Amino acid sequence: MVDSRWYDKFAPLYNIGTFADLFYRRARNKAIDELALSPGSTVLDIFCGTGVDFGPLHREIGAQGRILAVDGSEGMLKEAKARSRALEINENCIDFFEADLSRNGGIEKVVSCIHEKKPRHVLFSLGLTCLENWHNFTSEILSAVQSGTRLAIMDAYSKRLTLGSRFISWIGAADCQRTVWRALEENCDSFQWFEFRPFKVLDVSVFVASGTKP
User: Fold this and answer.
1) Kind and range of the H or E element at 139?
2) Membrane-spanning residues where (predicted)?
3) Which pLDDT belongs to residue 43?
């Protein structure tokens, strides 16, 4: 994973650079739909970034629900906290955790959060492709959550190393050729995979993968 300072610098420009989430919106909404949330749910939002997930998540879980927002970048979390205030999400409904998920200490911090807060819904939002240890990390999360937990991943993917995929990978400090849904496919019930093509001209897909821990 690239140094978090890359994301710290990018954080204030993220919403402008993604055109207010224009390219990811359909896939993001699908991923959140796949979580099967209900009022009062607790959801773990991994790679929360600037908090783009907060609005649709909060609409589903309501004032009695809780968002556990995790990111490795202090700058991204600063923007996320500002967004939560702008959305008027009560501070009792959201917890923020800074954790470098490329390191064992960061993974252990998230696992401890899972054991303490017991979320039954987990969203990986545009971040697994940034991790060299993506399979181990996802497997650790799967091991930590309770049986019946719903998990969903939204991320970018390209079958081929094209100029477009190189560009998207560079912007996100990621590797779009990583098949980061494999741990869910191998270990979850009711696995599903959906493809969106907002970057068709670049030959890059945005996918949503989901499943339930047995």
Assistant:
1) helix 134-144
2) none
3) 98
